[in-house]
Amino acid sequence: MNFRVIGKVLPRKDAVAKVCGREAFASDVVIPNMLHAVTLRSPYPHADIVGIDTSAAEAMGAVCLVPDDVPDFIYNERTVSIPEKTYRDRRVLPRRARHVGEAIAAVAAETEELAFRALQALKVEYRVLPAVLDAEFAMSPAAAPLYEEVLLGDETVKVNSNIACERNIVIGDPAAGFAKADYVIEREYSLPRVYHLQMEPKTAVCQPEHDGGVTLWVTTQTIHNVRQLVGQIFDIPLSKVNVKKMALGGSFGSSIQMNSIIPICTALALKAGQPVKLVSSREDDMYDHVKFPAKIRLKVGVTKDARIVAAEMNALVDIGAHQVNAYPLLGCMAGWYASLYKWQDFSFAGKSVYTNKVPACAMQGYGNPQVNFAVESHIDIIAHECGFDPVEFRRKNYVGTGDEFWGQGPTVKSIIKSCGVEEMLAVGAAKPNWRGRQSPAAKSGRYRRGIGVARGFHTSGTGGPKPGEVIDYSSATVKINEDGSVDVLTPVMDLGGGTGEAAVKIVAEVLQLPYDKVDLARVDTRTTGYDVNTHATRGVYCGCGAVLHVARQVRRKLLEYAGRILDEDPEILDLAFIPAENATVVQVKGYERKRLTIGEVAKLAQIYSWGTIAATDSYRQKNCPPCFVTHFIEVEVDTRTGIVRVPKALMLSDSGTPINPDMLAGQLIGSLSRGLGYAAYESTENDPATGHLECRGFVTDNKIPTSCEMPLRENLEVYFADTYEPTGPFGAKGIGEAALNSVASAYANAVYNAIGVRFYELPITPERVLAALTGGGTHADRQ
């Protein structure tokens, strides 16, 4: 299709402000009389807080916050799921610390220096308790319980053997399916705890208002859910809680929930009666959230003609000290697994377990990269052991157009209407480096090259024909001003991928306006309707879907008003951009000389007191179409040092119509870097004796990829499949999380192709490569 602005590379609306350092993030907010706050965090993984002596800190003039100062309200930071499916176990400040780094008190003072000195003056009496630092041990009778009971919705439920929740799903008859198989292959895969490492650590600024309310500037992916939780915890009417939408310095899922410092900052501000600013240090942030670690056992049955006939997956997830979103995670993991290949008869058994570690939460893919690593490694193993071509085997069994898709687990199902899997596999398989690949046995010498393939997907939102366990709708306002310019008001957070630009382009396309005549307004929770969250790769498909829905209402209203002025039926009117005049006009079809500019229509509507040409509405997408990706990654392994380089990568995506093609490519390249970190370097595991991070922050072992570890730009190839999603705005789907999901799998498959060693545990560090090559590795096989 031919579009005026959709699919065009245009300047970002926030580009100049960000490049010049003028964009305001939460950490930039300064309010007169503002106090600076810091948090005191537990040095123990499990301990009762017997008492906190604040007298010395208060003598310095500091405002102190301890558990007795905050409401005894139990909540879950994440309020995306429906209440009856939401487990709650967290308090603003607990009387029992359940992981190293959990905030147990806070102080605020006139300067940061004074706040830190006051913090050091706090005297805490702890009763140290036995710590549980291994998920499998946590389920044994010898393990100390982290909780006796928690809340599920408003109901109290017992916690047995530290098992936070379980999900078990059986489709068909797996036993009968395995009986039909000619080959049955089973392996176990282990995925690490990884810190989000978003650019912006968490910030909260709270200003108490004269009417008993609060105004908040915070790091978040969801201004409305923050508003609702703050209102609930502190019993403040929502009309008196206002959360400002701020620029966000990346997130990767780390702010899907209301971050733990937000209610602490709010409580301090209410106690002090003046504004308070609380900024997390990077170390504080590392002790606040991680990616879900998992152990996945996968068993798959296949026939001689390369048809999958049965599968069985068992997943154990260590969620850490609090359940942020473990129950929906297990449902999603089941969905990622169920919708990747046609397993026929299959089962899923998932368990999430409490341990005295940093709480795990969503991180770019929400369980999908973990499942993908297990499945795509397994598919590669089956192809090798059974003599199938790895691309053809995938092509023969993938879930695609016309098939049922589990968007966010078994309660969110829809039918796939667009799919570029065939095209992407064909394009990648036609590349010379794939066609000319050799088996590991044919390679020798110090440096050995290999190439691996993996494919994946993610949902575009969480909607289905029927609402499921996850709330999913967005709101928007579009308003035509009297000079013909347009304001777009959306609460959807842009995490850096260009969701805001997509909203502007969609409105400009609907109203046939120049891109520079449409702008995003600065908004907050008082000026916008509800949006659930920027998560689940829903920004363009759902958030901008709402913008499209509202823009079309504005277009109808514009044509109606123009019809009154021109004395014509709105049905025979149309919008057109006139380049020579740099203006958009409403004109009579077939008689273009009878026309008015959009600005003239808006101004006359004002003069005639008809009203502003604007609309506000909410909209729920009734599908969550998969955005597909495929990675062909080439590696070079130095068998003397174990170091693995990535000289080339081909990243193929199916995201429907590319609204922002440059940013789509950026998402793919950025996610390659993130995925290589997950595959090769990153790990934020806890010391099994002390519960502290083994990497000790960034001091020792938490390497992340830099430009030095990435292929040269000329060796990075991006390809967009030619698809159109009929339910998406102008045919668009998402890309964000999908872009990462199969990177680690393709990397591991490439390492196998290079040296004949199959790794079942991430990260694949140089030490592990060397150990495997010399026969001393664990979680690796020479084949």
Average pLDDT figure: 95
CATH fold title of the largest domain: Aldehyde Oxidoreductase, domain 4
Tell me the CATH superfamily of the largest domain: Aldehyde oxidase/xanthine dehydrogenase, molybdopterin binding domain
The percentage helix is 25-40%
- Please describe the biggest sheet, giving its number of strands, its sense, and whether it closes into a barrel: 7 strands, mixed
Side-by-side strand order of the widest sheet: 3-6-1-15-12-13-14
Which segments are poorly predicted (pLDDT under 50) over 5 or more consecutive residues? Answer: none
Give the structural class: alpha+beta
**CATH class term of the largest domain:** Alpha Beta
CATH architecture of the largest domain: 2-Layer Sandwich
Instruction: Write down the domain tally.
Output: 3
Topology:
Layout: H1 15-19, E1 35-41, E2 47-53, H2 55-59, E3 63-65, E4 87-88, E5 96-97, E6 103-109, H3 112-121, E7 123-128, H4 135-138, E8 149-152, E9 155-158, E10 163-171, H5 174-180, E11 183-191, E12 203-208, E13 214-218, H6 223-234, E14 241-244, H7 261-272, E15 276-279, H8 282-286, E16 290-291, E17 294-302, E18 308-320, H9 326-338, E19 345-354, E20 360-361, H10 368-386, H11 390-397, E21 404-406, E22 413-415, H12 421-429, H13 432-435, E23 447-459, E24 474-480, E25 486-489, H14 499-510, E26 518-520, H15 539-566, E27 573-578, E28 583-588, E29 591-597, H16 598-607, E30 613-619, E31 626-638, E32 644-654, H17 661-680, E33 716-720, H18 738-741, H19 743-755, E34 757-759, H20 766-773, E35 780-782
Parallel strand pairs: 1-15, 13-14, 16-20, 18-19, 25-26, 32-33
Antiparallel strand pairs: 1-6, 2-5, 2-7, 3-6, 4-8, 8-9, 10-19, 11-17, 12-13, 12-15, 17-18, 21-22, 23-31, 24-25, 24-30, 27-28, 28-29, 31-32, 34-35
Domain Aldehyde oxidase/xanthine dehydrogenase a/b hammerhead: 20-130
Protein name: Molybdopterin-dependent oxidoreductase
Organism: Anaeroselena agilis
